[in-house]
Amino acid sequence: MVSFFTPDGDAVIPEPIARSGWGGGHLGGPGVCGLMAREVERYCPEGFVPARMTADLFRPVRDRPITVRSEVVRSGRRITVADASIVQDGEVRARSTVVFLSTGAEPPGQLWRPRRELPVPPVGIVPPEGGRPLFRSGERDWSREYGDHQNADRKISWHAMPALVAGEKLTPFQHAAMVGDTANHICHWSSAGAGYINADMTLTLSRLPIGFELGLRAEDSLATDGVSVGTATLYDRSGPLGTCVVTSLSNADKLIDYTAPRR
Questions:
Q1: Any idea where the Acyl-CoA thioesterase-like N-terminal HotDog domain is (predicted)?
Q2: From edge to edge, which strands make up the β-sheet containing 11-14?
């Protein structure tokens, strides 16, 4: 079975699927965010849900053994907060904060909510063990070919992630954290290719995902002088469940053109 990491004592060893598309011997954000979610979700009290995760990706995580450190910042009756850090060679390379909130009855009254048309691919087109995501853009149908969707239209992706760590079942929170990092791609994939690299990722959840499939639809992208903020809706076959926000930097000198011939 394919996985992002293999356990090795207190550390994990990256597998090829965890590598970044930008190259340079670095790891991609999905695996890094997934590892930090894996580390802190054990602190989630019974009757709570992970409601927000913010990951700061301020140094490249290298394609080498990784140790994750964590601590509980606050454990309260309705709010628990935990931090996690990715450590390599004694140096923190990424960190995250996760907020767990207690669940309960909803207050009375009616709230305004937007009407969302969140398309899903046919049932059975994505295998449970994961693989390449499906994409949709504009009026184009779902496909796994990146070049089919390199345009200026709104992007949607549909994911079933492989296991994060070999021998472990991927949890709903880990899955959401991994897909959340791909908001950078969905929000910043232009007609010329992928030209922004995200420095962070914030995932908000009103509930955990249901099933093994997750969709991500770009909602907004605001760019000025090479700094861009992208926002996307996270959803499953039951409907919307959260948002993903990324702050990204121009990486034009390493732009990934998905229509270029593969070497």
A1: 20-100
A2: 11-14, 3-8, 163-165
Place of tokens 């969302």: 116
Tokens 């295998």, residue located: 127
The total of structural domains in the chain comes to 1
How much is the pTM? 0.95
With b for 16 or more beta-carbon neighbours within 10 A and e for fewer, the 113-141 pattern comes to eeeeeeebbeeeebeeebeebbbbbeeee
Tokens standing for residue 169: 């079942």
- Helices and strands, number each (H, E), in the chain: 3, 14
Q: Is the pLDDT of residue 263 over 70?
A: no
Distance CA 25, CA 251 (A): 17
b or e along 44-67 (b: 16 or more beta carbons within 10 Å of the residue's beta carbon)?
beeebbbbbbebbbeebbebebbb
Q: Tell me whether residue 261 is in a domain.
A: no
* Domain contains 154: yes
Domain range holding 218? 3-102+118-254
pLDDT in tens, 21-74: 887 799 999 999 999 999 999 999 999 999 999 999 999 999 999 999 999 999
Measure the CA–CA gap between 203 and 32, rounded to whole angstroms.
14
Give me the residues paired with residue 85 across strands: 69, 95
In a domain, 107, yes or no: no
**100 — phi, psi (to 5°)?**
-105, 130
Find out whether 190 and 154 touch, Cβ atoms under 8 Å: no
CATH number for 173: 2.40.160.210
Name residues whose C-beta falls within 8 Å of residue 227's C-beta, 6 or more positions apart in sequence: 247, 248, 249, 250
Q: Is residue 210 part of a domain?
A: yes
